[in-house]
Structure formats: C-alpha cells, structure tokens
Amino acid sequence: MNETPKPTPMQTPFEDVLNRTLSRIPSEIGRMIYLASTRDYNSGIYQHDGLASRFSAADAGAALKQAHCAVFQELAAFSLEELVGDLNRYIENSDEPRPEFLRAWRTLEPYRVAIPLTADPTMAQLLLSNIRIALEVLRIRQKRAEAHRSDAWQLPSPAQ
After folding, report:
1. Is 122 among the domain residues?
2. Which run of H or of E encompasses 134?
3. Does residue 160 lie within any of the structural domains?
4. By CB distance 3.0 to 4.6 Å, which of 66, 76, 90, 129 could disulfide with 27?
5. pTM of the predicted structure, to 2 decimals
C-alpha cells in the first residue's frame, strides 16, 4: 500500500518538497517542468496550496524556488548522454506518443519556460542547447527504429 508520508515536525519545507513530491517524479527534467508549473508566470512567485497549508505560503514558495534551482543545477551538470537518458524517461512517463512528443518539443520548445528566473544565463543557454541536441538524438533514434521495423516486415526478394 502506497501511503503518502506525513511530514515530521523536524522536516523543512524543502525536505517536504523533495520527499513527498519530487521523489515520485522519475526524471530530473520532469521535476524541473513540475517545479516551473508551480511558478506564477506573471509574478514569478512559487505557489503550492498543500505545502502552504503545512508550513506558510512564504516558506512554501521559498522551498519550491530552492528545489527548482537545485534541479536546474543538477540538469545543467548532466552529460549529454545522461540528459538523453533522462529526457527519454520523461517521454516514456508522458501520455503522449513519442513522435508527437518529439515534434511538439522540437517545435514549441516548452522547456524554455522551465528555467528558474535566477538561473545563470550562460548555464541556462547551455541547458537549452543540450536539450535541443538531446531531442535531435532521440528523433534520430526514433527514425532508425521505425526504419528497422519496416525493414523487418519486408520479405526477402526471390534472388536472395
């Protein structure tokens, strides 16, 4: 039985975010997307009603901002290989078919709004560039897998 752990009196709001929420998201990019979704696009203030009910709105916002920055730093330090694997996990856990996901992300670049406001601009550009490369790697792998599947269905010619 999966019961949600109750916060202990000694648990900080940041630890609560890590233990109760982020630990359930299987990819770092998924964590960054989630944390960005708690940030108001007009004010930049992080909000989470559940966390604010256990602590305070200010403490909840500070914890979410701290977690967002920490996840960003982690992702920015990933090698390209690690980022491709992490993005692949994110895609596998989404409800979208892989080709549509890759098309949307390559076209719309929704990950751009997931960067923390306080991120170093150079690190932000590096991560955005690496995500674009990772998407291209996954797109090429997808095309190769599709080509391999279509080749497998072709019957050998009589001359073979």
Report:
1. yes
2. helix 121-153
3. no
4. 90
5. 0.84
